[in-house]
Amino acid sequence: MAASHSRQRPASRRLRAGLAGAAILLAACGAPAPPPEPRLPHIVLIVPDDLGRHDVSFHGGEIATPNIDRIAAEGVLIERFYTAPICSPTRAGLMTGRYPIRYGLMRNVIAPWQDFGLDMEEVTLPEVLAAAGYEHRAAFGKWHLGHVRREHHPLRRGFTEFVGHNTSIDYFTKERFGERDWFHGYEPADEEGYVTDLVAGHAVGFIDRHASDETPFFLYVPFNAAHSPLQAKEEDLPRYAHLDAVEPPRSWEEVTAGWPLAPEEQRREDRRVHAAMVHALDEGVGRILRAIDDRGIAENTLVLFFSDNGGGLGAADNGPYRGTKSTVFEGGTRVAAAARWPAGGFSGGGRVKAPVAYIDILPTLMGIAGIDHHGGKKLDGRNVRDVLAGADPDGPARDLFSFVGQKNPEREQVSVMSGAWKLVVIGPPLDRPGSAAASEQLLYRIEEDPFEERNLATDHPDVRARLFEKAREFRALQPPNPVGSFGAGMEGFEPPPNWQFPDADATDLGGS
């Protein structure tokens, strides 16, 4: 069993105190007790890594994903679910309900050699749910929100159980840079098996242990699949030996900032292995859904599925959308997503057409849990429960932003969607004098042109200028010391043995 941690962070204590104080005030005033609320749902959040939008068959893809499809068929398919363009920022935004640029965690991922993590001043999703009565809160899979300092560990950020790793690892040996990165709680573990299968197995075990509890549970399953390294189980490889290479997206040279495209034969092999990895992912999702069914809790379990970003160049299929992972084009940020919660109205196989974003996860779950204030900083996301239930088909009126500067600091990408329009700005940092003149600015009517084929910047200079100022203001949110560029600190780096935290303290010893 995964190790637990009993410490409460100040934000969590404030949340609990606020809820308790409200109950005491009602009693002191002689107010009648409110009628009991319906039981809160169990929550299962499944987030695969680098899954292409058209890597699922519910979008017409060539990889069979019957279990993932089942979430959409029995729940709702979310047509326009937006994430950040890369891994760590999406995970940070769903955990906080805030754009990760605000705390310096949006331009790049946290590389293994970097001492950086999710800002300790941010209130996290499991802390919020703990205050609402979710006693058991587990994370199984890829964390990627800080690993050098123990304060960044999942067990310090609101989770009660953790099994997994920090960044991408070998699917069989669990190694990264020659050291094993696989933990049960705080402690390295020698558990053997294919990583995707292990993650699914721990999720099933958690459901089996807590489905009958009086309190609801929160289960976060950030699968590493189908992120590199491209490694599939031998028995799964023949299933997709017939697949051809994925055609590179339009203007791939532009959106990859010069990263080379592999030869076609290599891309064909990569596609076949990637497809077999997606098959294993789908099987893992099926095991989780069956565990929910077998325990009789499907009616009041909210299952939410979405990729952390678009698929990478060469192996994944983002369909006809422009761009890939690491870009703010639709191919990098508009991902496969579905939700199911029969008791809450997320059912019937409908399609949600309004834009929904990763930053909406925390405020939506707050609303479902009956919490109207979380004791932290102002949220950027919105409660989209009514959108997912079909009661608000248009969704909230708001702008949506994206940003990435991972590959080339002189070609950062910032985007803003506002009403019918989307502007993409590519160039030097927008806080630099002369950046407007030095930037490429691409303007689209995004609902009419979701494949971003027709640049209307010249035809609508007023719209372009207005959205450029919004993009500039968003880029200005980045603090002075953000996460470093990807290669910063890599030279001469030596990983610690078993990737253990170097700043251990006595209270953390003895985890199982």
Summarize the structure in words.
- There is one protein chain.
- The protein is of the alpha/beta class.
- It has twelve helices and 19 strands.
- The chain has a ten-stranded mixed sheet, sandwiched between helices.
- α1 packs parallel to α4.
- The N terminus and C terminus are likely disordered.
Labels describing this entry:
512 residues, alpha/beta, ten-stranded mixed beta sheet, four-stranded antiparallel beta sheet, 15% strand
Provide a quick synopsis of the model:
With 512 residues, the protein is of the alpha/beta class. It contains twelve helices and 19 strands. The strands form four sheets. The chain has a ten-stranded mixed beta sheet, sandwiched between helices.
- What is the helical fraction, as a range of percent? 25-40%
The class by helix and strand makeup works out as alpha/beta
What fraction of residues sit in β-strands? 15-25%
Low-confidence stretches: 1-37, 505-512
Number of strands: 19
In spatial order, strands of the major sheet run: 9-8-5-4-10-1-11-13-2-14
Annotate the secondary structure layout:
Layout: H1 10-28, E1 42-46, H2 66-74, E2 76-78, E3 81-82, H3 87-96, H4 125-131, E4 136-142, E5 161-165, E6 175-176, E7 179-180, E8 183-184, E9 187-188, H5 195-210, E10 217-221, H6 252-255, H7 264-294, E11 301-306, H8 330-333, E12 334-335, E13 337-340, E14 350-352, E15 356-357, H9 361-369, H10 385-388, E16 400-404, E17 412-418, E18 421-427, H11 435-438, E19 440-445, H12 461-475
Parallel strand pairs: 1-10, 1-11, 2-14, 3-15, 4-5, 4-10
Antiparallel strand pairs: 2-13, 3-12, 5-8, 6-7, 8-9, 11-13, 16-17, 17-18, 18-19
Helix pairs in contact: 1-4, 5-7
